[in-house]
Specification:
Its EC number is 6.1.1.18. With about 575 residues, the chain is α/β, with parallel strands linked by helices. It contains twelve helices and 29 strands.
Length: about 575
């Protein structure tokens, strides 16, 4: 695993370690625990996306790095599953799978916030007994209206002065199922005039007569995020609770709850502290689970794992490697200031990862027939190319040179523009374009044929028999163009999907336009390409560099034995203009 570069969080951790307060920590049972504990706490209400990858690499990356140091470190995997309405095991499973695929290991430290329901309920009662929480019976709308706006104070609830005994009875009645959804809520008694609206008696429990995917029908009250999160952190002895900037306003509440429970002797120092970092915003895509869900539900993409989706399952299927995602996260770093990261940064990380790893292969994506007129129709000349130029030990690919070949349509121009060094017809006493057919022969264009609509149907050429690559004669030919080709006799017609960005707007998620209006309706193009013979054996999940085109993966789901289907992951050059 690649080490994270230095960032402000490391400085905080280094400072905390140097203070000595985190040495020889023990949990509530007196068991030794690492000095540094981080956690990754997604809510299982959707599939993880590339933004989550940043948080995963950060939290698990810090733990991996500080593991080496005195006191040690670890990262807990926690499913923050306290809202039964939107959560599902399908999502929980996919989250764990995504973290593992990215290369991180939580060992035995997998937790569920729902495992803390008993403790959360006990702590809520302790706060009630100490006058720090009360049951409110206003409607949701009244609570919202009475909270007040910024610059204006809120209004106390008429139920705010209920006695602890009354509150306890009501709260237990809520859990005993005596009330309907929305009849009562539990609120912390903080300050309705607090300048930070988050602190105006936040709601921490509400009634929801809904089955939970793990606790079934045991509970009909569920704790809210602000209450659950800090307590889960404290119960797990998290030292550094790292979240995105939108939770900055919630930090005083995090600290308030922890210190209220500390005063009751429930938690001891060092208690967890929350630190915020800037979320990942990536151009031409969106990183919001809710909006991604909308794309899936409205069938604007082919599911969560559509290769155009920024979900981990999507980018995985598209062909990105775990190493490239970690490299990307390392390169973008971690800061406290929001910014946009260019999609090309992600693509470059993939190219840098695969350049030395991906075997090379030939694919003609837009085929045009090339006929070598001085080559016998029945003849064939064996040719070969290294599977990877830097890995001779990987061996060679073998293929045939024949009279009829496929080349890229773009490698021929009837009227060549200035600086076009590939194939073009002779004009007057000017000879036709000369190119080397990679790993084959040098040829010279002698003409072309058109159909009734004026489309080029065939290019004609002659070859130079002494110019074969790897033979001494090949040195006598100096040509500027170097193009790929496949014998028509052995080309494998193969489905290839070419993907483009999912949105036309670099910032589809911000600004006044609705993100759905920015959808690129031409983001997926399915073609039949011609592949060199050995590609028939490509296995689902194998990655290749198709020479001159880019990196491709044999699709995990749609490839069959002897019949791969390819997705283009990225081109060789940046096309995110
Ligand atoms: P979304 O906003 O997409 O619904 P979320 O923030 O609700 O996502 P959680 O499941 O609560 O998703 O997130 C788990 C962790 O991942 C949190 O710590 C959250 O801050 C972090 N995270 C979510 N989105 C991003 C992002 N774009 N960049 C960095 N971290 C993120
Ligand atoms: Mg969330
Ligand atoms: Mg969010």
């Amino acid at each position: 695993v690649i080490a994270e570069p230095s960032n402000f969080l490391r400085q905080i951790i280094d400072h905390d370690l140097a203070s000595g307060a985190y040495q020889q920590r023990t949990d509530r049972n007196g068991q030794a625990i690492p000095s540094i504990i981080t956690r990754f706490p997604p809510e299982p209400n959707g599939y993880l996306h590339i933004g989550h990858a940043k948080s995963i690499c950060l939290n698990f990356g810090l733990a991996n790095d500080y593991k080496q140091q005195a006191g040690g470190a670890r990262c807990n995997m926690r499913l923050d599953d306290t809202n039964p309405v939107k959560e599902d095991v399908e999502y929980a499973d996919s989250i764990l799978d995504a973290v593992q695929w990215l290369g991180f290991d939580w060992g035995t430290h997998l937790y569920h916030a729902s495992d803390y329901f008993d403790q959360l309920y006990a702590f809520a009662q302790a706060l009630i007994e100490n006058g720090k929480a009360y049951v409110d019976s206003q409607s949701a709308d009244e609570i919202h209206a009475n909270r007040g706006n910024f610059g204006q104070v809120g209004k106390n609830s008429p139920h705010r002065e209920r006695t602890p005994a009354e509150n306890l009875t009501l709260f237990r009645g809520m859990q005993d199922g005596r009330y309907q959804d929305g009849e009562h809520v539990l609120r912390l008694k903080i300050d309705m005039a607090h300048p930070n609206i988050v602190m105006r008696d936040p709601v921490v429990y509400r009634i929801r007569h809904t089955e939970h995917h793990r606790t079934g029908s045991k509970w009909c009250i569920y704790p809210l995020y602000d209450f659950t999160h800090c307590i889960s952190d404290a119960l797990e002895n998290v030292s550094h609770s790292i979240c995105t900037l939108e939770f900055e306003n919630n930090r005083p509440l995090y600290d308030w709850i922890i210190s209220a429970l500390q005063e009751l002797g429930i938690f001891k120092t060092p208690v967890p502290h929350q630190y915020e970092f800037a979320r990942l915003n990536l151009t031409y895509t969106i990183t919001s689970k809710r909006k991604l869900l909308q794309l899936v539900e409205e069938k604007r993409v082919d599911g969560w794992d559509d290769p155009r989706m920024p979900t981990i399952v999507g980018i995985r299927r598209r062909g990105y490697t775990p190493e490239s995602i970690r490299l990307f996260c390392e390169r973008i770093g971690v800061s406290k200031a929001d910014s946009w990261i260019d999609m090309s940064t992600l693509d470059q990380a993939l190219r840098d990862d695969l350049e030395s790893k991906a075997p090379r292969a030939t694919a003609v994506l837009k085929p045009l027939k090339l006929v070598i007129q001085n080559f016998d129709v029945l003849a064939c000349e064996p040719c070969s190319a290294p599977c990877h130029p830097q890995h001779p030990e990987w061996g060679n690919r073998e293929f045939q040179f024949t009279r009829d070949l496929w080349i890229e349509a773009d490698d021929f121009m009837q009227d060549p523009v200035k600086g076009f060094f590939r194939l073009f017809p002779p004009v007057g006493d000017q000879p036709g374009g000369r190119v080397r057919l990679r790993h084959g022969f040098v040829i010279e264009c002698t003409g072309y044929e058109l159909d009734a609509n004026g489309h080029v149907t065939q290019v004609n050429a002659t070859y130079f028999p002494d110019s074969k690559s790897g033979t001494p004669g090949s040195n006598n030919y100096k040509v500027k163009g170097n193009i790929h080709w496949i014998s028509a006799a052995e080309a494998i017609p193969t489905e290839v999907r070419l993907y483009d960005h999912l949105f036309n707007d670099p910032h589809p998620d911000s600004g006044d336009k609705h993100f759905l209006e920015a959808i690129n309706l031409n983001s997926k193009q399915t073609i039949t390409a011609y592949l060199e013979p050995c590609m028939k054996e490509a296995k689902a999940g194998e990655r290749f560099q198709f020479e001159r085109h880019g990196y491709f993966i044999a699709d995990q789901l749609d490839s069959a034995s002897g019949k791969p289907v390819f997705n283009r992951t990225v081109g060789l050059k940046d096309s995110w203009k």
